[in-house]
Amino acid sequence: MKDTRSKSRSPRTLAVHAGTRRSQYGEVSEAMFLTQGFVYDTAEAAEARFLESTREEFIYARYGNPTVAMFEDRIAALEGTEDAFATASGMAAVNGALVSMLKAGDHVVAGRALFGSCLYILDEVLPRYGVEVTLVDGTDLDAWKAAIRADTKAVFFESVSNPTLEVIDIAAVAKLAHAVGATVICDNVFATPTFSRAVELGVDVVVYSTTKHVDGQGRCLGGVICGTKDFVRKVAEPYLKHTGGSMSPFNAWVMLKGLETMDLRVRAQADTAERLAHALAGHGKLARVIHPHLDSHPQAALARSQMAKGGTVVALDLAGGKDAAFRFLNALEIVIISNNLGDAKSIATHPATTTHQRLPDDQKVALGITPGLIRLSLGLEDTDDLIADVLDALDAA
């Protein structure tokens, strides 16, 4: 297929065809190039390639690989960015996007409601190397306005926060950041590439854990940084290729196969999540049901304007605290207990004792991570079966 990067192509078409590079054998399914190195016809050819390598010529798998390049081109086309760099994991993408562009003395403003490992990078890693970090309530535009300074180099946030599903006003925060020349970096996992409008709303750099909805079937780790060609190739790539954060060719091939069905999977999962959220709203054993498209969500109108659907995750806050949450988890029969999300299998997580366990209690309270909070990622099982499973487990709680 020609011109698969064209904006006239549907995202579903791009997810199947964009970036395809066929070998001389004309294979239908993308080829998997499991090689760490590449051969040069002559010493002069090797010298020339090292002097000026292109996206059509490869040197070493840590620098680039045909299978990985196909995945990068495809997800960039889907996200609407000029380029992408595939990484070994989602956290390699977050770390790579931030560390590659920052140096001692720089200032970063970030939303405080973040995945535990993201908070570790902002709280522990960046300050260790002289980067000043200010954390703000991401839902409070006045807080962003007060924190962003003339010397702010970057702002970072999760478009929908993990695990309490706060929604950031992407366009408003991007406008504040761009007014001082700051780069806007968005972790967009919960919005998914299917429902993303991040670039349209002003985000400069979009990062994903492709482990989640892109693979979506519990097989491989992966991440990706999407942005301008200058950012990806001149800022992120030099850091990542020299520090070893690149994606393996096998994982890239799995991600390519995942992209082909992602739109269908994510839409079905999002429909199930919304149905479950409505079925549980007002349940006597729940202090809160959190879903971005529920009317009770504080940013419901904003969420609807930024995402066609509310995503694949529902958060439940059991009124009985940790004991009730554990009884609920242990009573589930279809939903499994794990710490991933965006999978074909429905997964329940207790953030306070797993993904966010390292946070001090006062920080958990500030973020709304209560002892009774459960993050429920909806999969591809029958919706009625899932609703029955959750209701039965609530009875047991």
Molecular structure report:
Helix 4 (90-99) packs parallel to helix 5. This protein has 15 helices and twelve strands. Strands 1-7-6-5-4-2-3 form a seven-stranded mixed β-sheet, sandwiched between helices. It has a five-stranded mixed β-sheet with strand order 8-9-12-11-10. 41% of the residues lie in helices and 15% in strands. It has two domains: 11-258, Aspartate Aminotransferase, domain 2; 263-396, Aspartate Aminotransferase, domain 1 (Alpha-Beta Complex), CATH 3.90.1150.10. It is globular and about 75 Å long. The protein is an alpha/beta fold.
What's the arrangement of secondary structure elements?
Blueprint: H1 11-17, H2 43-51, H3 66-79, E1 83-87, H4 90-99, E2 107-111, H5 116-128, E3 132-136, H6 141-147, E4 152-158, H7 170-178, E5 183-187, H8 192-195, E6 205-209, H9 211-215, E7 223-227, H10 229-243, H11 249-280, E8 286-290, H12 300-306, E9 313-318, H13 321-331, E10 336-337, E11 347-349, H14 361-367, E12 373-377, H15 383-396
Parallel strand pairs: 2-3, 2-4, 4-5, 5-6, 10-11
Antiparallel strand pairs: 1-7, 6-7, 8-9, 9-12, 11-12
Helix pairs in contact: 1-3, 1-11, 3-11, 4-5, 4-10, 11-15, 13-15
- Count of the separate structural domains: 2
Kindly report the CATH topology of the largest domain: Aspartate Aminotransferase, domain 2
> What is the 3D shape?
globular
Helix/strand order: HHHEHEHEHEHEHEHEHHEHEHEEHEH
Distance between the termini: 54 Å
Uncertain stretches: 1-5
Largest sheet: 7 strands, mixed
Fraction in beta strands: 5-15%
State the CATH architecture of the largest domain: 3-Layer(aba) Sandwich
In helices, the fraction of residues equals 40-55%
Based on DSSP secondary structure assignment, what is the total number of beta strands? 12
Structure annotation, total helices: 15
Q: What's the average pLDDT?
A: 95
Q: Supply the CATH superfamily name of the largest domain.
A: Type I PLP-dependent aspartate aminotransferase-like (Major domain)
Structural class: alpha/beta
